[in-house]
Design a protein that fits this description.
Four copies of one chain form a homotetramer. Helices cover 23% and strands 20% of the residues of chain A. Chain A is built from nine helices and 17 strands. The model of chain A has no long low-confidence stretch (mean pLDDT 97). The interface between A and B is large, with 102 and 102 residues.
């Protein structure tokens, strides 16, 4: 258990691990820059079994959101459905009949990437940019579109509940750098530059066993301790994701900063952060075959000006 | 130029190439079943340069849709933006500041997969299912969710304008099986079971050079002739996609059936069909390095009950 | 307490009070036909104090809906906001600055009229029309647009809790014809042809005092007994509304028909039904001045094909 | 034709006719304060024929919007439709069957009121309020909700094309105070405090006869000259509306201020402004019976934080 932390701790970490300018003043990729062509090619060579596992939860009205801050669950509408096919409503079309649909959803409603324009700390987002870059018309800089062809690399699963020999971590239970190291050792993987690290807390399994989302969205949760900042930076990972709403331990360790690791990692490192991944099937599979590394492909939708994107991440082994 | 075709031609092709029951009465994958673990592993071995190309157009209000049939372009809304960060509207949050957003869009508005529940012919969709399976609440069968971990395979680009030595095919210009064979030969690839074939017509380049979508959505277009049905079936491809609104040549060759190849391929073969891909960067790249095959990863969003999905397909070389 | 009722009771009432054809085979107004020019002019003469009371609840995300059946609460988005004004994002406009907004909402999410295309019983809606009249593209007949200039008449408040000397009726407490008569007598009004009758149950007050909607949407509620059907028909009222989600007592009195009075009144009489009105301010005012009748103006939005409409009803005294 | 005007003209008019503080520092009603109880009662006495005319255009995807600035036309979705009724998809419900629907629309998409939070000039909106009052969460001050029970008064139609003996005014044709006076004289009405004045340009008739909206939204239009500012203020009208997109003559008379009358009237007078009214049926009726005054009831939907509202205004004679 680390000593007490507060906004000054966050600021010190922010300064220490700040990557602003590291890849140039116009950079909008941040740590995704660690993914090199060699890294991509090497990651593809991890595919041996021809097995694909989706890490996305269903996008529907039964999702985790409560509507807080305008984050509701997806609303799916049919523009044309089977009733129209059956009733003759489409008889003006020659031969063919069809169904069509639409969706209204927050981009952060379910399995998602945060864009670098998503988070601000001390008035700035990644690469020393101010909030005027994001208007009601969307983000002019650090939008998710910068990543449209960038999220192909090695993925590594760190299964913390398996390490701790429990079904899931408890709400409020922090994950420390030593846990990450121990999970990597147990998985027989060495975290390397350009990796995307998937940290399983097991909270998604808890939700499923309980049969309700409860306070999953924004409530107490297991997750990364702020003290993982150095670990994230020093391993030069391209990004990380968890099976929780916000990746960090909640209650947060800093009483005067909400989601402090977001402030350090996203804003200062320029790190790719993923949330609300489901890692259950992947964890079962990795546990069974002992292989915790895989080709990881998780392209965002290139929504102009977006500060996040719904995704369906693919782990390919 | 083939002889005159009509609804009976479509019905004959439908019967001849019908895959209903081929993979069992409960199958919802159709030709995606041709993608085997061996196919996936082999496709991954095509990744040598570590290069990734996105095949999605931007998702925004400048998209191709006209609103016809309720298909409007995406509407992107900010739930929180930089103005809120700057004005103090988020001062109730400790330390962190953020932007958040939402989208309203038809699932078929831009780069997309059609689900097998999208198209009906003679009262049925794929695998002998009737329209009652798709209500206002969505599709109970043949929804896009069935494909959430299935679209990883070899992709092949067939560049027809390059073959024809023209910048793009004209509206109404049909692509025939011999064209597909010639393009494959020129690309030095042999189409194989489980491939996803990307057929470039160049219409996206025409749109860009003209600076407006014009009648791209639903208007006259180059595309596959109905006579390609046999080619699609006999090569056992998993799916195909084009850089046009509807993949088929428009005006259609059958006066009494709109989009007849949809009726044969999607409804009867159970084929995966992709639309509104941008193949320009990929074509330039393949033309430059002479490599027209690649790992292709294009997961749909697992939207419950959806009959299509926006996608950001990744060609990885 | 009436004897046990079931679907045959509903069918008998439906036959007895059916108005199909009464105003012609093409009629889409139903009981609103009882509002004559003389009625409108007389209603206007009730305006003496120049007082206006709104009967609508706020349209926002704190509304009564739970998302059940796709009925979520309104989502309000800013297309341009003060942050854009302040940040210079609108500096491309000469001089003027502005804010703009948008909404996504079910038409039945808050204070509303049901259109005659909203409800079906034994396969039909009002005036012997079948469900094929309402496709995914909306209602071709009995849509809310028919009422765009029709909802101006005398309104009468029947305050049942005041009659019963209690703050509100309990969930499951039925209102019978004798209660309506007694409330009218206490209010010194005679219900007349063309009136719109507002029946207060007090449930909205209960909700406010409790500080949460609880099961307001679709849960147990006070409301009209099915035995009020004769009363509604014989008084030739143009419509009625309540301060509850569904106007009828829930649990319903018919185990085999949900909302049986809807089936009799809307489907067979062609009656205008309003829901989720707030009658608290009006009841306080009527209690204070002893005047329970007023000019009532509640135009729906003329949304093409809609089966309901959000409204802001005005009681003018 | 007045002499050349520019931003200094606008500022001078703004100062001269500014009502900030006139009704108190907390006022959010502006000129609607001119509507007194006596005014409302007198307006009701204008109802003699029992005739109601709706002044709203249809809300649907065929509306006037082009999508510019995020203003698209309404999207209407069915949550349940006749196909569901027919197919058995609702057989889980006892007896009753139903249709339900939803809408996505800009609040300024069709017939509408501008809220006082809609427009800013020289950094302020009505009553000396700054843009920080309107965040992505909506307007805290000057929202449309302030008017939820305030728009009941005398309406007066000023039919300018009738005065000018032409079917409609041309795009770019300005309406001057003398025109308003002449139209009032022709209509035998004296504009009085608290009136809402409906100024017909005939552009809606032009649109209908042409069969397309053309540049109706934001393009060249007939409308009020900036020189009408004094007329609007000195008559103490509560508000005005036109049958055009923006009420003002376009091209505007001030090269350095877009919609200058908005800046004077809405921002400084606090005036209620309505747009995209259809006045055709009303004009025909007034022409026929010679009565150009009526009870006017046009309640906004009380959408929390909204800067405008769709409306269906009712002219009642």
């Amino acid at each position: 258990m680390p000593e007490a932390m507060n906004i000054e701790t966050v600021r010190a970490l922010a300064r220490k691990y700040r990557n602003w300018g590291r890849w140039g003043a116009t950079d909008e990729l941040g740590t995704v820059n660690f993914i090199t062509p060699e890294k991509i090619a090497a990651a593809a060579r991890l595919v041996r079994q021809g097995k694909v596992i989706s890490l996305a939860i269903p996008f529907d009205q039964n999702g985790p959101q409560s509507g807080y801050g305008g984050r509701n669950n997806p609303l799916h509408f049919m523009l044309q459905d089977g009733g129209d096919v059956a009733s003759g409503a489409q008889d003006f079309i020659a031969g063919l009949r069809y169904c069509d649909d639409a969706i209204t959803m927050p981009l952060q409603c379910a399995t998602q990437w945060d864009a670098l324009a998503h988070i601000y700390f001390d008035g700035k987002m990644y690469n020393d940019r101010g909030p005027a870059e994001v208007t009601s018309s969307g983000a002019r800089r650090n939008a998710i579109t910068a990543l449209k062809d960038k999220i192909v690399t090695r993925g590594v699963l760190l299964d913390i509940p398996r390490l701790k020999k429990k079904p899931w971590l408890a709400a409020g239970e922090a994950i420390y750098p030593a846990d990450l190291d121990a999970a990597a050792a147990a998985a027989k993987v060495t975290i390397a530059s350009g990796d995307i690290v998937l940290v399983r807390t097991g909270q998604m399994r808890e939700v499923r066993e309980r049969g309700s989302w409860g306070q999953y969205s924004g409530g107490p949760a297991p997750g990364l301790s702020l003290t993982c900042a150095a670990w994230l930076a020093e391993h030069e990972i391209a990004g990380y994701a968890t099976d929780t709403w916000g990746t960090e331990v909640i209650p947060n360790e800093t009483p005067d900063v909400f989601q402090p690791l977001h402030c350090v990692a996203i804003v200062n490192m320029g790190m790719l952060v993923g949330e609300i991944f489901t890692l259950e099937e992947l964890a079962d599979d990795c546990g069974a075959d002992g292989v915790y590394e895989f080709l990881f492909v998780a392209p965002p939708l290139p929504i102009t000006g977006a500060v996040g994107s719904p995704i369906n991440p693919q782990a390919i082994k």
